[in-house]
Amino acid sequence: MLSPLAEKLTWLDYTIVGIYLIILLVIGYRASRKKNTDETLFLANKSLDWYSIGFNMWGTNVGPSMLLAFASIGYSTGIVAVNFEWYAFVFLFLLAIVFAPKYIASKVSTMPEFMGKRYGDSTQNILAWYALIKILISWLSLGLFSGGFLVRQILGVPMAPAVIVLVLFAGLFAYMGGLKAIAKVNVFQMILLIGVSTTLTILGLQKVGGISNMYHQVPADFWTLIHPANDTKYPWPAILLGYPVSAIAFFCTDQAMVQSVLGARTLEQGQLGVNFIAWLKILSLPLFILTGVICHILFPNLTNPSMAYMTMVTNLFPAGLNGLVIVVLIAVLVGTIGSSLNSLSTVFTMDVYVKKINPTASNEQIIKVGRLTVLAGCVFAVLMALAIDSIKGLNLFDVFQSVLGFIAPPLSVVFLLTVFWKAMTQKAVNAILSYGSAFSLGVGVLYLWVFTPDKYSFWPHYLLLSFFIFAFLAFAAVIISITDKNPIIYLSEKEESSQEFKPSTRVITLWTALVVVMVSLYLFFS
Q1: Given its phi and psi angles, is residue 120 left (phi above 0), alpha (psi -120 to 50 degrees) or beta?
Q2: Which residues contact 412 (CB under 8 A, 6 or more apart)?
Q3: Exposed, middle or buried: residue 396 (CB in 10 Å: 0-12, 13-18, 19+)?
Q4: How many CB atoms lie under 10 A from the CB of residue 313?
Q5: 361: number of Cβ within 10 Å
């Protein structure tokens, strides 16, 4: 059965989609036609400039679920969700100034390899499998399901053919050109996303009579970033303390996010690229969240807030331009799934195949295994997306976002203490990554499925719960390190004294400007 949007499609819409696909394929082909090496496939031959890094990180971050979730939250509660975008600048700064110099100086391809150089093979093995499972579940499966869900919602296409076509198209760039092709494609796609989303917001503003009318037609607390401590959905202590746990794990340690920085032409370009994505995140308010706020004014009686984005698209885009919505959908899917497949391929090939299975592998063998991993990832993602779709009666987006929050504490503890505390030992790292992860996920299972918060009121907000787990694991890591009778501690004098760590004047200037802007925005919306 066709959706209202699908029924409105004209020959012009199909032409727009066709032209977009051709442009996308040409960009991907031009970026991948040079002879591939393992470094080209995984790290773009360390050739990425700041704008490629920023757009690619943003493309990885902006998944299909963001279009649904941000519009839905904007419809229900206003702009409070923008905290999850704007507050991120603190942790992106941490990545640029603290973590990136160490990653690049270590000359690594993956996060497990970085930790392995510090604490040995056992640590690298644990983190490699941890990273693979995380990419497969949280990035590929959930990301593809979100895309398939959105395709079905907007176009009325069944889930199975939708996810198969989407993952094959996204996988094409990871298979043929690796990180370089994905980065080049994402520059084009994110510019397109900005253009289309801006158009939707402008059409909505015109419909409600301008910014002033929009401001006065919704409750006053819709424009407040900081909600009271007794707020049930987004209390300020939960955001202040809990969000950093997930943000550090996501922005500073996640292979899919950090890989663009590892492919930087220079450290300065990497730091500028991270700065650029922080600026781009400011756009989340006008591009994504205001869509929901405007929908609240125009269509106040929606039975399901998650329909806010589709409702706006269906009713505001004129006939002949609905193809742009399909284009944006493909864009965010290719960005997220393509980067995820490339990260999966990199971790498995470099940390499992080369490290354990075939240490003497030739360049051709490494590329072959990397591409086979992409194909296997595509198959797994499709099967998992269909399995998720078969589950009935759950608010899947909320459930899985909560699950991801329980994955973060062990990663945040391990990487933070490794970088900031020289006495961290191998025993503590391995214990937190294994037993600590089991504990964190176990608490998550109890919270989400056994003693659910809707029936048991003793639970704190899940973001605060994530922070408490983080604090407990950090304390445990310190105790284990202090009491370790035979500590294995990493310290590289060369790395610690490297002058490459000092940020350039340009980097300092742009980060200072960003801090001033972000503080001003928080003061304005408080």
Answers
A1: left
A2: 244, 245, 246, 248, 249, 253, 470
A3: middle
A4: 25
A5: 16
CA atoms within 13 A on the CB side of 293: 30
Q: In the predicted model, what is the mean pLDDT of the chain? A: 82
Q: pTM for the complete prediction?
A: 0.84
Instruction: Give the long-range contacts of residues 473-477, CB within 8 A, separation 24 or more.
Output: 473/409, 473/410, 473/413, 473/432, 473/436, 473/439, 473/440, 474/413, 474/416, 474/417, 476/428, 476/431, 476/432, 476/436, 477/413, 477/414, 477/417, 477/424, 477/428, 477/429, 477/431, 477/432, 477/436
User: Within 10 A of 171 (CB to CB), how many other CB atoms are there?
Assistant: 23
Longest dimension (CA), the chain: 73
Contacts of 126 (CB under 8 A, 6+ apart): 430, 433, 434
Residue 419 tokens, joined: 């970088």
Please give the helix or strand (H or E) that residue 351 lies within, else none: none
Tokens of 157: 């296409």
Residue (of 91, 43, 85, 57) closest to 276 by Cα position: 57
Amino acid at 288: F
Closest to 429 in 3D by CA, of 361, 506, 509, 487: 487
Q: Cβ(63)–Cβ(190) under 8 Å?
A: no
Q: What's the CA gap between 42 and 110, in Å, rounded? A: 9
Q: Which pair of structure tokens corresponds to residue 471?
A: 């604090």
Residue whose structure tokens are 């408080």: 526
Ranges of H-type helices in 263-393? 267-281, 284, 290-298, 308-316, 323-347, 363-390
Reading the block at residue 199, the tokens are 């158009």
Number of H helices and E strands in the chain, helices first, is 29, 0
Residue 476 CB-half CA count within 13 A: 23
Select the highest-mean-pLDDT range: 59-73, 136-150, 375-389, 501-515. Answer: 501-515
Percentage of the chain surpassing pLDDT 70? 84
Whole-number Å distance between alpha carbons of 99 and 375: 31
